[in-house]
Amino acid sequence: MATEDDALEAFAGESQANRKYLAFSEKAVGEGFANVGKLFLAASEAEAIHARRLLQVLGAVKSTATNLEGSVEGETHEYTEMYPQFVRDAEAEGRMDAVMAFKHAMKAEEVHAGLYKQAVEAVKSGKDFEAQTIYLCPICGNIVVDTVPDKCPICNAKGSLFKAVQ
User: How far apart are CA 79 and CA 85, in angstroms?
Assistant: First the structure.
């Protein structure tokens, strides 16, 4: 069906634009262009709105348990199949910057899958995921629950850099 294919392509484009514009916003602010940063940030949020609406069009947002199960599957694919191949490709090309980015993502995806597994078990038993605070490493994307380590076990970033997720 053309509409579904179009919605899938639009979702991919909107999602990528969201992340790209967020990165552009951070760069502009870092270079002293605060209003350009705000413009990119607004556009980033607009693209996120579009992407969420397209997920609804695609019927991709299901029950929380189903969403968690699909997330476990996706994250597991990434850390067991996708990123290991990407690491090999980057190593073969001598792209150590990419090797590091892929390895950090691969290790973080494994953590994500484990946390999603815990969450799906809780949800299926009628409970919420147990966590006082969830923290995110802004360098590699590692997620920790309740206690921030002195250093990130994936990228060695200082624990003080972790951000509490609100």
Answer: 10
**pLDDT surpasses 90 at 142:** yes
Burial 1-16 (b: 16+ CB within 10 A, else e): eeeeeebeebbeebbe
DSSP 72-110: HHHHHHIIIIIHHHHHHHHHHTT-HHHHHHHHHHHHHHH
Catalogue all structural domains in the chain, each as residue range(s) with its CATH number.
Answer: 1-58 (1.20.1260.10), 63-129 (1.20.1260.10), 131-165 (2.20.28.10)
Tell me the per-residue pLDDT of 103-127, one tens digit each, with 9 for 90 and over: 999 999 999 999 999 999 999 999 9
The two beta strands, 134-136 and 163-164, are antiparallel
- Considering only CA atoms, give the Rg of the chain: 18
- In single-letter form, the type of residue at position 55 comes to L
Distance CA 162, CA 137 (A): 5
pLDDT digits (tens, 9 = 90+) for 17-31: 999 999 999 999 999
Q: What share of the chain is helix, strand, coil (3-state, %, to 5)?
A: 70, 5, 25
Average pLDDT over residues 35-61: 98
Predicted confidence (pLDDT) at residue 1 exceeds the cutoff of 90: no
Give the pair of three-digit tokens for residue 93: 């090309």
